[in-house]
Amino acid sequence: MGAIRTLALIGAVALATSGCALLPQSADLRAVAMPGQVEPIHAAAITRDLAVFWVSSNGCTDKSDLFPIVAHEGAASTITLRRIEQDVCETPIADGVEVIWSFEELGLTPGSRVSVNNPYQLPSTIPTT
């Protein structure tokens, strides 16, 4: 059954446009089936044309493991970052890793008003030996 779920997820991701899903303006995020799970983030920064996130990593996380969902409400947009692939490596990175999407990738106009819908999580302390 795991292979079927994996194929279904791959198909869903392949149908999304340029790494993001654009929801109708009035979409209720709770009512829309979304891939993966909401990813707690260490930090986020939104510039004129970039969305930058810092997320936890066990050593193998990269941009393709995460999926940004963009919801539009009037002139504002909200990004919810979701993890679609687990990081099963065993070399945690203390401060996490940085992942960046351009507004073009997200289907946003440069300078758009954007907020982030992910919970914040402090970086874990990795013991030194």
Distance between the termini: 41 Å
Q: Would you tell me the overall average pLDDT?
A: 80
Count of DSSP H/I helices: 2
Task: Give the structural class.
Answer: alpha/beta
Helix and strand sequence: HEEEEEEEHE
Largest sheet: 5 strands, mixed
Taking all Cα atoms into account, the compactness measure Rg is 15 Å
Q: Give the total of domains.
A: 1
Which overall shape is indicated by the principal axes computed on the Cα atoms? Answer: globular
Number of strands: 8
Beta fraction of the residues?
A: 25-35%
- Which percent bin holds the helix content? 10-25%
> Segments where pLDDT lies below 50 for 5+ residues?
1-27
Signal peptide: 1-21
Keywords: Signal
Protein name: Lipoprotein
Any overview of this molecule?
With 129 residues, the protein is of the alpha/beta class. The model is unreliable at 1-27 (pLDDT under 50). Strands 1, 2, 5, 6 and 8 form a five-stranded mixed β-sheet that branches. Strands 3-4-7 form a three-stranded antiparallel β-sheet. The protein is 14% helix and 33% strand. The protein is globular.
